[in-house]
């Protein structure tokens, strides 16, 4: 039974890109945000701090290029370093969108990252990929393959008798 569940969960693994935006880093929220993903049971497989380039952002936010707020968004996202992460787990894309909350913090529920830590859409602390396809595209954009690590959890790999 346990083995069947574990096989099922590993066959439905997803990865998603989460980025703590410059305001989140400057407000020292990185640890609290990472803690939420760890305690939910997701696995960190990629992590780096970077000053994002205009080129990366224009690809990342290509769908928003024609929006009136786009120039302000670029300015915001380059106003300081970003902490980018790749988290892995069952339904991690959808679950992390729920954990992050509505784009506009005024509509984000309390208990979500945006609902707890932000009050304006132009300073909403964190990015989360919004679909499986989007996550795959964004992970390739932000991370090189060798920067993503596969590793085993000691609490999930013990099979035989314990020593
Ligand atoms: N009127 C708006 C709309 C959006 N934004 C910024 O643009 C980002 C991207 O918008 P969108 O992709 O629509 O929101 P989300 O998917 O929730 O955010 P992200 O892609 O950053 O996860 C928002 O997070 C926010 O920082 C903004 O400043 N002003
Ligand atoms: N009306 C807006 N005014 C200012 N910034 C916005 C607005 N809408 C979206 N943004 C910014 O653009 C980011 C990306 O937008 P979008 O991808 O639609 O939402 P999300 O970040 O929830 O995926 C948002 O997180 C937010 O920072
Ligand atoms: Mg988005």
TrEMBL record:
Q: Give the source's domain of life in one word.
A: Eukaryota
Name of this chain's protein: Nucleoside diphosphate kinase
HAMAP family reported for this sequence: NDP_kinase (MF_00451)
Subcellular localization: Cell projection, Lamellipodium; Cell projection, Ruffle; Cytoplasm; Mitochondrion intermembrane space
Check the record and name the InterPro entries matching this protein: NDK-like_dom, NDK-like_dom_sf, Nucleoside_diP_kinase, Nucleoside_diP_kinase_AS
In short, the EC number is 2.7.4.6
Give all residue intervals belonging to the Nucleoside diphosphate kinase-like domain.
Answer: 13-150
Q: Where ATP is bound, by residue?
A: 21, 69, 97, 103, 114, 124
Under Gene3D superfamilies, the record lists: Nucleoside diphosphate kinase-like domain (3.30.70.141)
Main location per UniProt?
other
Query: What family is reported?
Result: Belongs to the NDK family.
Keyword terms, alphabetized: ATP-binding, Cell cycle, Cell projection, Cytoplasm, Kinase, Magnesium, Metal-binding, Nucleotide metabolism, Nucleotide-binding, Nucleus, Transferase
Active-site residues annotated for this sequence:
127
- Cofactors (names): Mg(2+)
Q: SMART domains given for it? A: NDK (SM00562)
> Is Nucleotide-binding set as a keyword in this record?
yes
């Amino acid at each position: 039974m346990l083995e069947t569940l574990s096989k099922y969960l590993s066959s439905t693994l997803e990865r998603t890109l989460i980025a703590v935006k410059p305001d989140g880093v400057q407000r020292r929220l990185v640890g609290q945000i990472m803690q939420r993903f760890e305690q939910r049971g997701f696995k960190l497989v990629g992590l780096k701090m970077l000053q994002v380039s205009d080129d990366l952002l224009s690809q990342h936010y290509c769908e928003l290029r024609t929006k009136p707020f786009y120039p302000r968004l670029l300015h915001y996202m380059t106003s300081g370093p970003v902490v980018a992460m790749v988290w892995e787990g069952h339904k991690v894309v959808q679950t992390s969108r729920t954990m992050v909350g509505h784009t506009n913090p005024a509509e984000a529920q309390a208990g979500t990252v945006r609902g707890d830590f932000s009050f304006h859409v132009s300073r909403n602390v964190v990015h989360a990929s919004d679909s499986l396809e989007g996550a795959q595209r964004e992970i390739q954009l932000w991370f090189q393959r060798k920067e993503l690590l596969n590793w085993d959890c000691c609490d999930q790999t013990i099979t035989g008798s314990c020593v």
